[in-house]
């Protein structure tokens, strides 16, 4: 039981028997400065009930409110501030962590409801760039946090395998492609062709029309262009799966845009039946003037479908297939208007479950202050960044721990973890300027720092020969108490991270917890023969449990040695 739950229980038992413990829990605050107490209960909302000022209520309660768990209760203005008995309260908290292990912090409010996540979604025949990292790791972390909160998840990689760009790529391949080069290095060679198409199109605008015609042939099932498209797709997916394996990310579905080709006619028919389609400059659109949104394009003037058409078909399919309670689209914030249009169209069709669809936007990775662009060749390849991070991690490990047996495996965990954590510690709505130096720094507020803190905790337990059945009988020093208070926040942090779809909440918490433990480690001789040794080691074990579980929620491994 955490401190807030302990306090809520005591307030209900002694002061407010008619109040719900959950309501009291929500009202309890943590003072900004530890000398003001461990927790505080604001009395503002009681003024009308008792017809007294909040200050007077706090003063009166500070005299009558007592418990063996408290060392001091004092009124500070309208707040009732509580100082806990460190040994007794700490025993409750740490014993709870040790008893639950990796299940500490697990929530049940998800009630096995289904969350569908649309995430990652790279385009085939293009390199997997840093631009796709955010959707992948943010989506993966949100899914893992959802599962920790009791939800069931379905992770969908909505591969970009359809659209005019494939007509352009087919034209480029036919004009300049070398089949042998493509077979030898498909992604890199197709990327070269894609860039060349746009360079040539600036000189010859007619190429754009050729690209559109080639895509129409693809939509119509032309055998030659379909075979090329399938080849591009198969090679791309193979390359992508290598990167997903490095990141430790798995999907429940790879149904991309092309999967919905035979499902779009139903959407068009439904829109016609509801008299929502209008012609605009030869195209078919759904107007949404009432929402101050631009018209949603359903079909181009040449009859080709658009991104919105496929997203509408995908939403309808997913609702029928998964019966989702919530559908999350982890897609960059530049797509905000698009998702508003899609959800508005679904509402116009009478699908109220569109309210359960949410766009989870995020900022961009920038290069020299500009958006990365495969079309202009301004791109940084994720696989290269990951491999460089692993190499740097291995060099670092070789210097610090040359005898480490599983160094390559640890280096992969540390290198990949550095890249993932660098992304997730940032608020997802912020843009991030790409800097390899910052990403791969292993000191300070980084993934490797947290992994190293975890490894240090495991090393202490190994040296003491105490890794199982530890018991926490209580500690009352200030340094250990700060660690205990930090650990008790973990369940709250998980709930907050889910409520805001914000993995950064957990990342920042892990930094604070690591710093708190390292201060404790720096001031306390943990392995010393005295009656409190086992309690100190039990606290170390509790720290390890929380750090490992927090990293897992972010999609990062925790090596026990570094």
Note the main attributes of this structure:
single chain, 562 residues, alpha/beta, Gyrase A, domain 2, Rossmann fold, Isoleucyl-tRNA Synthetase, Domain 1, 3 domains, four-stranded parallel beta sheet, 10% strand
Please give the CATH architecture of the largest domain. 3-Layer(aba) Sandwich
> Distance N terminus to C terminus?
33 Å
Radius of gyration: 28 Å
Q: Can you count the beta strands?
A: 13
Amount of beta strand: 5-15%
Overall mean pLDDT stands at 92
Give the strand order of the largest sheet, numbering strands 1, 2, ... along the chain.
5-4-9-10
Sheet with most strands = 4 strands, parallel
Q: Label the overall shape.
A: globular
CATH homologous superfamily title of the largest domain:
HUPs
Q: Can you give the helix content as a percent range?
A: 40-55%
Number of helices: 22
Structural class category: alpha/beta
CATH level 3 topology of the largest domain? Rossmann fold
The count of domains is 3
Which class of the largest domain in CATH terms? Alpha Beta
Kindly describe this structure:
The protein is of the alpha/beta class and 562 residues long. It folds into three domains: 3-84, Gyrase A, domain 2 (2-Layer Sandwich); 119-267 and 302-371, 3-Layer(aba) Sandwich (Rossmann fold); 382-553, Orthogonal Bundle (Isoleucyl-tRNA Synthetase, Domain 1), CATH 1.10.730.10. It contains 22 helices and 13 strands. It has a four-stranded parallel beta sheet with strand order 5-4-9-10. Strands 1-3-2 form a three-stranded antiparallel beta sheet. Strands 6-7-8 form a three-stranded antiparallel beta sheet. Helix 7 crosses helix 10 (206-219) and helix 18 (447-464) packs antiparallel against helix 22.
